[in-house]
Design brief:
Length: about 425
């Protein structure tokens, strides 16, 4: 594939952009692959890319029932940070954040990583103590975060109201190298680079059944026919329970909708990401000027991918005390994605009870930021047949051994 560069841009500008190639190939499925990955969200695509790039495993297919990036990857609010509490989470989220720093260069695709800073507000004494604990844990893990005072918060976000009558801002946890990236571009960049390395990405190809014999998995049935495989990795977020059922096992995961919305575009007013977890709202401003806003998950399990008026009202009501300007903005769009929640709010990366089937799921409300680290760790597991250091703690066995990795505070979204 031709490299994207300033010279390519200039060349195409001179010939009316007639020479651009398709960003990724659209092949028909082969009868057999060494590895089949189900789900072309960020995690599935990154897994395929690092399998090919880091481990030389290239006879790989990624099967996607819709269009790539059309699941949670293309529906999220793009917040990237690594301020997690427990050592295994700190390791994988910080690995991901570091990979994001140079991802555009690595993939030769502009993912628009913008380390504009992420601020988690403390609006109760309890939350202040929780963030201080996280800050100390971050320092021990070598992750750069700092506790900031209300006065410093006013400097970072002049538009904020610190003195709300119900929830005054008492301080915050600031990660200066956290930020955002363009979600579609992350999916497209991984897809293009993986395709270039020989990975087959097959869209409009739903997996409808999983075949196994006494020794383990043998292949999948799809809307484009049967495909045999040596290893199968399920990376389908909110559909994880459905795919596990096809394979004959259960996962400790609940699926529910997480919603978000954007306002009409306005001039630049907020140049970092702010999360207000006590009141359940977070906000950043997109390059187009829209306020990108989200709140908590729906209070009941469901598979809808839609927004609801109740959620718009609830989230804005929560945020208006701290951001009074929101009361004067019209909201443009709302939507939902199906998030895959585990009991300890940490992901599952590991072997399943069926030999040859692996799972990478449970990223819940917070997996966009993890995509590069998750792909890296999952590829290592598939190539070796067993998880390495990054994925090791996240196996399914932790639920039977009672070895939870509690990230309910760091998940930072009401659930
Ligand atoms: P997905 O992107 O959902 O990909 C899974 C794919 O599997 C889908 O494309 C689906 O079509 C496919 N699939 C399902 N069933 C089948 C089948 N039978 N056959 C073939 N393909 C199938 N995370 C953050 O870090 N920061 C945020 O700011 C953030 N905000 C969020 C806001 C919202 C509103 C939502 C919904 C999520 C948010 N998240 C955030 C979470 C993040 O989006 C997800 O954790 C992450 O995108 C999951 O990626 P994935 O690749 O695992 O899943
Ligand atoms: O994990 O940072 C996060 C997040 C923000 C909004 C949804 N998830």
């Amino acid at each position: 594939m031709r490299r994207y560069s300033v010279f390519a841009l200039a060349r195409e500008a001179l010939r009316h952009h007639a020479g651009w190639e398709r960003a990724w190939r659209s092949p028909e499925p082969k009868p057999r692959y060494d590895v089949v990955i189900v789900g072309a969200g960020g995690h599935g695509l990154a897994t395929a890319y690092y399998l090919a790039k880091n481990h030389g495993v290239r006879n790989v297919a990624v099967l996607e029932k819709g269009w790539l990036g059309g699941g949670n990857t293309g529906r999220n609010t793009t917040i990237i940070r690594s301020n997690y509490l427990q050592p295994p989470s700190a390791a994988i989220f910080e690995k991901a954040r570091q990979l994001y720093e140079t991802l555009s260069q690595d993939l030769n695709f502009n993912v628009m990583f913008s380390p504009r800073g992420v601020l988690m507000l403390a609006q109760t004494e309890h939350e202040l103590r929780a963030w201080k604990r996280t800050w100390h844990a971050n320092r021990l893990a070598g992750i750069e975060t700092e506790m900031v005072s209300p006065a410093r918060i006013r400097e970072i976000v002049p538009a904020i109201n610190l003195d709300g009558p119900r929830y005054p801002v008492l301080g915050g946890l600031w990660q200066a190298r956290g930020g955002t990236a363009r979600h579609d571009a992350v999916a497209w960049g991984y897809a293009r680079a993986a395709s270039d390395l020989g990975v087959d990405i097959i869209e409009n190809c739903a997996v409808t059944g999983i075949d196994r014999d006494a020794a383990g998995v043998t292949g999948v049935r799809t809307t484009k026919g049967a495909i045999a495989c040596g290893k199968l990795c399920l990376v389908v977020a909110g559909s994880s329970g459905v795919l596990a059922e096809m394979a004959g096992f259960r996962l400790p995961i609940e699926s529910l909708a997480l919603q978000a919305l954007v306002s009409e575009p306005v001039k630049p007013a907020i140049d970092c990401v702010i999360m207000a977890n006590t009141v359940h709202g977070y906000i950043s401003q997109s390059d187009k000027g829209e306020m990108v806003i989200g709140g908590g998950t729906d209070g009941f399990n469901n598979y809808t991918q839609r927004g609801s008026f109740q959620h718009v009202e609830e989230t804005l009501r929560a945020l208006i005390e701290t951001f009074p300007m929101l009361s004067r903005l019209r909201m443009l769009r709302q939507w939902g994605g199906i998030v895959d929640m585990t009991g300890d709010r940490s992901p599952i990366i590991g072997a399943s009870p069926v030999p040859g089937i692996f799972v990478n799921c449970g990223w819940g409300t917070g997996g966009f930021k993890a995509i590069p680290g998750s792909g890296w760790a999952c590829a290592e597991m598939l190539a070796r047949g067993a998880p390495g250091d990054l994925a090791g703690p996240f196996g399914l066995d932790r639920f039977t051994e009672g070895r939870m990795i509690d990230e309910s505070v760091a998940a930072a979204v009401a659930h």
